[in-house]
Amino acid sequence: MDANITKRNELLAQKVIKGLASRNMTGYYAADADEARAIALSLIPEGSAVTMGGCMSAHEIGLVDALKAGDYNFIDRDAYEDKRAAMLAAYDADVFLASPNAMTDDGELVFIDGNSNRVSAIAQGPKKLVLIAGMNKVCGDIDGAMKRARNVAAPINAQRFGLSTPCCKTGACANCKSPDTICCQFLITRFSRHAGRIHVILVNDVLGF
Fold first, then answer.
1. Which of 35, 102, 184, 198 could form a disulfide with 110, with the two C-beta atoms 3.0–4.6 Å apart?
2. pLDDT tens digit string along 164-203?
3. Which numeric CATH code is attached to 3-203?
4. CA of 32: how far to CAs of 3, 35, 171, in Å?
5. Can you give the residue ranges of every domain in the chain?
6. What are the residues facing 187 on neighbouring strands?
């Protein structure tokens, strides 16, 4: 990555980390995917029950492969015939992996969900959250973060899933009520009552959507 972009990301990440700390969440900065994976694994004790929502960023840094290959109880919902059972198992997991669709530079996290299993687990359930976020997801304020989530993350994910929504055709949110919409539930995490539960790893890379 260009040295000037890296420098900007390092400086911005420190601001985000301070914002997270003010909200009772813990932030980390990783210079690349390898460092991000190492930080994540340091937060996940061996033997832990670990699961996730549809977190592309965890795949992109090699974390999912590392968990499958290591001494962890990785609950892979794709391997479950009963998807609902896999989703329900997430609520009692030791660690839940996810990525915000957007976040502010003051540490607020924005998530959009269709089935709502991901946002419900983030809000309550798993003992620890390990969130992976490329620096491309950092926005200046909550309005910008919501716009990014709705106009960048949601259309790309809808296209990825082969859905039939207006945003698949236009690339922008139409505030639709399509049966295929994945914008069913919005979660803004602005504070954590439980110290040590939410960990956000900021990565000097373009990750996820």
1. 102
2. 999 999 999 999 999 999 999 999 999 999 999 999 999 9
3. 3.40.50.10420
4. 13, 5, 29
5. 3-203
6. 111
